[in-house]
Amino acid sequence: MTADRDPAHPPRTPSRPRPIVAIDGPAGAGKSTVAREVARALGYVLVDTGALYRAVALAAHLRGTSRDDGAAIEALAMDLVAKRALTMQARAGQTPTLVLDGVVRTDELRTPDISQGASVVSRYPGVREALLDLQRSFGREGGVVLEGRDIGTVVFPDAEVKFFLTATDERRARRRHAELTDRGVASNFEDVLREVRERDERDAARDVAPMRAAEDAVVLDSSERTVAEVVAVICAAARKNERSD
Ligand code: DC
Fold first, then answer.
1. N or C: lower Cβ tally within 10 Å for the chain?
2. Torsion of CA 54, 128, 91, 162, to 10 degrees
3. CA 31 to CA 87: how far, in whole Å?
4. What atom of ligand 1 comes closest to residue 109's alpha carbon?
5. Atom 13 of ligand 1 has which residue's CA nearest to it?
6. Quick one: pLDDT band at residue 134, thresholds 50, 70, 90?
7. Residue 151 pLDDT
C-alpha cells in the first residue's frame, strides 16, 4: 500500500486507548527526527529500538568481545538484559535515554563504528530474542512510537499504525553525513554512502527479522516530503486510532 493511494490506515477496532505507532525503515530515512516529532506532538512515549542494538555493540566493544563471535555476543546480550545492565528510560514526549552499566550513553552510541557494529550484532537470533521482550514491555499499553527495522513485522505485528519510511541512498547518506558533521565527527560523503548501503544490505538480508515493510504498512518516501508533512500524515493516522472514551 502506498501513501498516495491511502495516506492512513483504516482504523481497526481499538483495543488500546491509544495506538502503537511503528516507524520502520533503512538508515538515514529520517525515522529518528520524524518519530521524535510525532511522539512530541501526540504526547506519546518514544522508543528508539536501534539504540538497544547499538548498546549491545558498544558493550561488546567495552568488554573486548569480538562482534564476529556470535555465541559470545548472544550470551552478552542475554546477560545485559537479565541483569538490567541495559535499560532505556522513556517518558512521554521526551527523548529516551539509554543506560548501559549504570551510565547514560548518547554520543558514544552514534559513531560510524557502532552503527556498523549494531548492524552486525543484530543479525544474531539470540540478540534479537534478548531484546524482544524489552521492546515489547515499552509498548504494550499503546501511546507509544517505536522506531526500528522490524517493529511492524515482528515486535508489534498488531500495531494499529505502521509506516515504513524510505528515501534514496544519496539522500539518506547526505542526511547521515550532515548529522555527523553537526556533532563534530569528521566523515567523508563517499564513505558514509558506502556504509549506509552496506548496513541496509546486511539489515535486509539477515535470516531473522530482516528489515522490510509489513504488508499493512504505509510506505512513505521522505525524499519528496518535508519532515512536517511526514509527521502530519503519521499523526493523523495515530489520532484516527485514539479512543475518545
Ligand atoms: O536505527 P539505527 O540506525 O540506530 O539502528 C542501528 C542498527 O540496529 C541497524 O543497522 C540494524 C539494527 N536494528 C535492528 O536490527 N532492528 C531494529 N528494530 C532496530 C535496529
1. C
2. 110
3. 21
4. 4
5. 50
6. very high
7. 97
Residue 129 carries which side chain, given as an amino acid letter? E
Let me know the angle formed at the C-alpha of 202 by 199 and 208, rounded to the nearest 5 degrees.
Answer: 130
- The mean pLDDT value of the chain amounts to 90
* CA 57 distance to own-chain centroid: 15
CA of 22 to the centre of ligand 1 (A): 14
Determine which residue's CA is closest to atom 9 belonging to ligand 1: 119
Ligand 1 atom nearest to CA at 51: 4
Nearest residue (CA) to ligand 1, atom 11: 119
Please report which confidence band the pLDDT of residue 14 belongs to, taking 50, 70 and 90 as the band edges: low
| Phi and psi at residue 155, to the nearest 5° | -70, -50
* Distance separating alpha carbons of residues 143 and 147, to the nearest angstrom: 14
Fold of domain 20-240: Rossmann fold (3.40.50)
212: number of Cβ within 10 Å: 15
- pLDDT of 2 higher than 70: no
> Which residue in the block uniquely carries the three cell numbers 489520532?
239
Give residue limits of the domains in the chain.
20-240
Ligand 1 atom 15: residue of nearest CA: 122
- Pocket lining for ligand 1, CB < 6 angstroms: 27, 49-50, 53-54, 115, 118-119, 122, 148-151, 199, 203
